[in-house]
């Protein structure tokens, strides 16, 4: 293990599995959470900020700054797709928690990302759990951001499987396809964790019982909010468990060896019925003509995951909290 914990910023739209991911990151000695930046997705950005502040309060970590992100897409779109039917109207299982006492910092998410990357070149990992608008804006506003940022580990895409918003696209990419294409082609060190792997990582009803029966503070909190999420999975997938999208993505930053990856260029379809589709070009064929695919930087895309190991880590760390 590296002696220095890896500095991470979690870009998040909390979200039930975001709550689980944030708690998991705080319980992982391999990483140090230096900030949360917020984005729309599971809820609107304003509520994402409120939920992020609330979760840090629950965790007793109000020392960690929260910077509010974009309220609109990269192309200034305001008709956002909000997945409150998955996470509850408040994003946290309809528990109506009291408002947090803390406030977000004055600095915007984009400025915070740019500054942290500039001050710690090569050392900061962004773990992006929502649409990629904030990251794309940082790339567009600071020509050095792609070089300064250590790594971007993102939850997004459905590589060679159906999407979860529609058959073509996964929710985070669909949330801002233009931003996703900017990020994938930016030349930054990128690891994409798609639903092709996260759908293999399932928290079962009996895991939920174990959390409920444990003394862990985070486990107890999550037990309260998981109901809505379980109901959604039963209705949408006929699945009695829930997918651990965000916790898997956090653990990819904590321990990359839990997954395997292939490399290639990724482009995102930004219009039409396949808007949000992610396509990986594995560079095995050299094409003669110059196209939108030529000379694009390579990224890593997860293709397998050690699901039992991921679930065990999630359970162990949340029960021991």
What does this structure look like?
The protein has 321 residues and is α/β, with parallel strands linked by helices. The chain has one domain: Ribonucleoside hydrolase-like (Inosine-uridine Nucleoside N-ribohydrolase, Chain A), CATH 3.90.245. Helix content is 38%, strand content 17%. It has 13 helices and 11 strands. It has helices at residues 16-26, 45-58, 84-87, 109-119, 133-141, 145-148, 171-175, 177-184, 195-198, 205-213, 217-237, 245-254, 307-319; strands at residues 6-12, 31-38, 66-67, 124-128, 151-155, 190-193, 202-203, 242-243, 259-268, 278-281, 299-305. The chain has a 9-stranded mixed β-sheet with strand order 3-2-1-4-5-6-11-9-10, with helices on both faces. Strands 7-8 form a two-stranded antiparallel ribbon. Helix 2 links the parallel strand 2 (31-38) and strand 3 (66-67). Helix 5 (133-141) crosses helix 8 and helix 10 runs antiparallel to helix 11. The longest helix is centred in the C-terminal third of the chain and has 21 residues, at 217-237. The two termini are 21 Å apart. The model has no long low-confidence stretch (mean pLDDT 96). GO terms for molecular function: inosine nucleosidase activity; protein heterodimerization activity; uridine nucleosidase activity. One of its GO terms (cellular component) is cytosol. Its main location: cytoplasm.
Topology:
Blueprint: E1 6-12, H1 16-26, E2 31-38, H2 45-58, E3 66-67, H3 84-87, H4 109-119, E4 124-128, H5 133-141, H6 145-148, E5 151-155, H7 171-175, H8 177-184, E6 190-193, H9 195-198, E7 202-203, H10 205-213, H11 217-237, E8 242-243, H12 245-254, E9 259-268, E10 278-281, E11 299-305, H13 307-319
Helix pairs in contact: 1-11, 1-12, 4-5, 5-8, 10-11
